[in-house]
Amino acid sequence: MVATGSYRNKSAFYGNIQKYFYIFDWWGKNNDNDLTGSNMANNNLTNAKRAKNDEFYTQYGDIQKEIEAYLEYDPSVFRSKVVYCNCDDPFESNFFRYFVLNFNKLGLKQLITTSYKPSPVANTQLELFGDDKTLPRSKGRPKINANRFIINEVHDIDGDGEFNLKDISQQLRTNKHNEWTPLEGDGDFRSVECINLLKQSDIVATNPPFSLFREYVKELFDYNKKFVIIGSMSAITYKEIFPLIKNDKLWLGNGFHAGNAYFFTPNTRDFASGVYDANTGLVKFRNVCWFTNLDHGRRHQPLPLMTMQENLKYSKHKEIKGKKAYDKYDNYEAIEVPFTDSIPSDYSGVMGVPVSFLDKYNPDQFEILGSNRGVDQDPNKIYGKGSYLNGKEVFKRLFIKHKRK
Ligand SMILES: C[S@@+](CC[C@H](N)C(=O)[O-])C[C@H]1O[C@@H](n2cnc3c(N)ncnc32)[C@H](O)[C@@H]1O
Predict the structure, then answer these.
(1) Whose CA is nearest to atom 19 of ligand 1?
(2) CB count, 10 Å around CB of 289?
(3) How many whole angstroms separate alpha carbon 18 and alpha carbon 41?
(4) Structurally, how many domains does the chain consist of?
């Protein structure tokens, strides 16, 4: 994950680059739990740092926009379903808020939410409900627990004519058809009690801890769940994730507006100018996306393309326009296509395209063959090794082919 911002001068840029790497480290690369041997001594510290750096909260509008894309494609996608938000403290999570406020509209059977005890903001109620003052604050220092919330029914119970979080709060407190109980453990999504709740659910929706993304996705597949979750685009080429994309078991969701994702954060430190906005409390990331196995309309829209000759003659990209031919890689039989909109419509061979192609990927139009990152992705050991042009390694690429009918 690379947070974005602007710099007034070079030294500010270089000063901030370290911060970028710090952020990138946890949301991009540092997703393995591979602390072994001598690293164990640093484990607690690392975990504490990791926990802090996992605290980014999704905005209500982003969740609403994403879920509406699935509803547009299939209005009954959530009907009679049990939705589970398993990394969500209802006091801070807009996933909980969205699904509880839209419970009847979506036709949900049940909403299950579990919170995570080690979260630095557990039970503290951030300002994430915007200016919604309806939810009463608890008096004194709240006892920190991981909690389980089970919502079976929602309606306006205080008679003010609208259903809102106050109604939910009252229903939970009086335990009417809904349940608010402490978990025995810390609410880790990998714990037995959370897995038991996962087993009861149909669709998982959340923004999980970025540092545990691989494990998180594995668990969803182990239990054969439908899901809509947020993650770093870096995950696309992880060796655990890429085969799922290639085999059409996981794909990108509808997406954040203009590819920019803004999250609330309680950690106001360390962000470069233009990344954290003190007025809104939001931090901006460019390489975050939705991952899902629910269908939506955008992935069935064909990408409009020009032929190879048209691209070479008229492309808006100087890297293509005026060339005699597309470049071919040194180490295997494929052409380099540096921009998704420059994919030639009439080329039948293998093409290397930027990872951002996935945002436009239509499985009826293209077949994904491999990527130039990671290992063990291609049984023939061709892809996954790096791709070179004139001796120079190119950026991350996916290898694709047109599907011919
Ligand atoms: C990126 S934040 C997103 C929070 C919330 N889902 C949202 O979208 O606003 C990830 C959340 O996962 C929680 N978390 C971290 N490790 C966890 C674990 N092992 N099991 C469950 N939750 C965890 C963190 O406390 C944090 O609140």
Answers:
(1) 188
(2) 23
(3) 24
(4) 2
Q: pTM of this prediction?
A: 0.84
Q: Do residue 215 and residue 320 come from a single domain?
A: no
Q: Looking at the domain assignment, is residue 29 inside a domain?
A: no
- Token code pair at residue 107: 């036709």
Return the ligand 1 atom nearest residue 264 CA: 9
Q: How far is CA 31 from CA 26, 60, 209, 238, 245, in A?
A: 7, 26, 9, 10, 18
57 lines ligand 1 (CB under 6 A): yes
In-domain check, residue 115: yes
Pocket test for ligand 1, best of 91, 116, 264, 288 (most atoms within 8 A of CB): 116
Does the Cβ of 58 fall within 6 Å of ligand 1? yes
Report whether pLDDT(8) > 60: no
* Ligand 1 atom nearest to 119, measured from its CA: 25
Q: 3-class SS at 263?
A: strand
Radius of gyration of the chain from its Cα atoms, rounded to whole angstroms: 23
pLDDT in tens, 135-167: 444 444 445 678 899 999 887 666 776 666 677
**Structural domain for 203, as ranges:** 51-295
Nearest to 243 by CA among 379, 101, 354, 337: 379
Using CA positions, which residue lies closest to atom 16 of ligand 1? 209
- Counting beta carbons within 10 angstroms of the beta carbon of residue 286, is it exposed (0 to 12), middle (13 to 18) or buried (19 or more)? middle
